[in-house]
Structures are given as C-alpha cells and as structure tokens.
Amino acid sequence: LNDTNPRSLIVRLCDVLSSLRIHGVVFEDDTRSEAVAQILDFISAQTSVPIIGVNGGSAIVLTPKVTPQDGPERQLQVIFEVLEEYDWTAFAVVTTLLPGYEDFVDYVEVLTDSSFIGWEHRGVVTLNLTDDPEGARTRRQLREVTAQIRLLYCSRDE
C-alpha cells in the first residue's frame, strides 16, 4: 500500500482481508505515523487478525523490538514470540542458498529444542533457484510443504 491516508488504508486492508484467507498481516511503511498505528490496531481488534507492524504501531509491534539491522537470531526470537502468542506451533522453514541460511536453520533448531513449547517443526526446504530457472522444481517443493506457517529466509529479490 503506497497510500497511507486513513480511508485508502482501511478500504485496501478490508478488501484484502475479505477476499483472501489471511492468517496475519505484516505491514511496513516509512511514515511512522501514530494514525496508521491506530488504524492497524483497530482493524486487528475488529477482525481478530494479527497485524505485525515493522515500522510503526499495530497489534504486534516489531519495532523497536527488532530492526532490519538486527541479526537473524534476534529476528527469529521475535518471530517465535509472535508464533507462540497466537498458538501457531506447526511450521516449516523455507530457505534459498543466501549466505547465512545454514545458521538460520541451526538457530531455529536451537530455539525449538530449548523451548517448553510443543513446536511442530515440519522440516526444511532449501530452494536452489539457480539450478531451476523455469521454477518447476521450486513450485513442486513448495507444494509439498504441509505447514501453514513458513519461516522464510531469502533475499528481497528472491
């Protein structure tokens, strides 16, 4: 959403929420506006859909808890807090060969193994995008992931 005026924001979010099966929304904007935070809080409260705000207020606020400059360990800690809060305990990990992906997978294991939460880790899918230019293998691998929650580790372009 490039337009964060209140009417446009409410209409667009409500359109998305009513037309798709959405379990949660990650919202990032660069305005840091309190009005946007209040709108997101209101929509989340009325729809019971968690809205995670990356740069502003919302039902769950990642900032200042986590920023893009934080390492994957801190980002994963916050993500697992969100998963725990909503009782989303079954998940899979999907990665590309982006440097650091092995550390990401290892830290997911550390977090789940050292927790009293009954995490249901449904495996890791590592996509090799360079060996699959048409994307057929990638689509097949992603269809085989049975968990509704997927922790994704890749670059923005990927």
Automatic annotation (TrEMBL):
Q: What Gene3D superfamilies does the record point to?
A: 3.40.50.2300
Lineage: superkingdom? Eukaryota
Q: What is the official name of this protein in its record?
A: NMDE4 protein
Gene behind the chain:
Grin2d
